[in-house]
Amino acid sequence: MKKYLFLLVLLLIITPVNLVKADFPVEMEDDLDQQITLAEKPNRIISLAPANTEILFALGLADEIVGVSSYANYPEPATKKEKIGSITEVNLEKVVALKPDLIVASGINRIETIKKLRELGYQVAGFYPQTVNDIFKTIKDIGKLTGKDEEANKLTGKLFVEMSEIMNLVEKKVEEKGRQKIFYEIWSDPLITAGENTFIDDLIEMAGGINIGAYAQGMWPQYSLEKLILENPAVFISSYHSAPQKVTIETIKERRIYQQLKAVKNNRIYLVNQDLVSRAGPRIIEGLREFVKALHPELADEVNKIVEE
Hints:
Layout: H1 3-14, H2 17-20, E1 26-29, E2 35-38, E3 45-47, H3 50-58, E4 65-67, H4 92-98, E5 102-106, H5 111-119, E6 124-127, H6 132-145, H7 149-177, E7 180-188, E8 191-193, H8 199-206, E9 209-211, H9 225-231, E10 235-238, H10 249-253, H11 262-265, E11 269-271, H12 274-278, H13 284-295, H14 300-306
Parallel strand pairs: 3-4, 3-5, 5-6, 7-9, 7-10, 10-11
Antiparallel strand pairs: 1-2, 7-8
């Protein structure tokens, strides 16, 4: 269960607020090894990725957010913010017009865009969490950059408690019946999954599964049907949005040669809210809950009680 995860996160959670409270100016090295320096608390913030938008709102920065990406759909007020383009195609003219004090970027943004914004003189903080522990750290780092240290500590503390309670339930189940092979479908054609060194892989392991995608090459590998049949996962998880036409359990069952899969034969196909498991933000423990319910349906009521909507 990745015992190191508990130790690292615990160190972050129990750090007294007064020891990490950000007094401006603030200096920080981001995940792209760039030094970020803010002389004053930012009052105009742009988010280039939905996960970071969710973090900013969760920290109480709704008024400071002046621009978000077109995919920002949560929380509901985010849909009313000025759109600065898509995740991959940022409208630089709109960014300039919004006069941001801070731009928060993600690993899913183009590095060329981030470099260009920095060349224009903007403070761009890039975050690329690869584990759940990294997501907690990202929340804390954004809290520090925005003067919301206390809020970040409270949020990560709450998430850590929920995660620990869920993992205690899962650990008992794993001791009873072992781990099950799982395949998580990000896209259906070509078939793409989550590989090693991704927080989705981390979630699957914490949920008590064996992510067969972790044995493929790359973080987001294309997966062959032949390999899928050979690995024969006990559980197959997808989402409504893994194809141009919405996916259903029935359409998965009807796919060519999928009837050979153990997951199909035993009706262990599940659909999850893609945003919960694919965004490195404050709803990540809700994503963990969804994976746990797929692997251990008998725990559904208990994990639903743990995670607050």
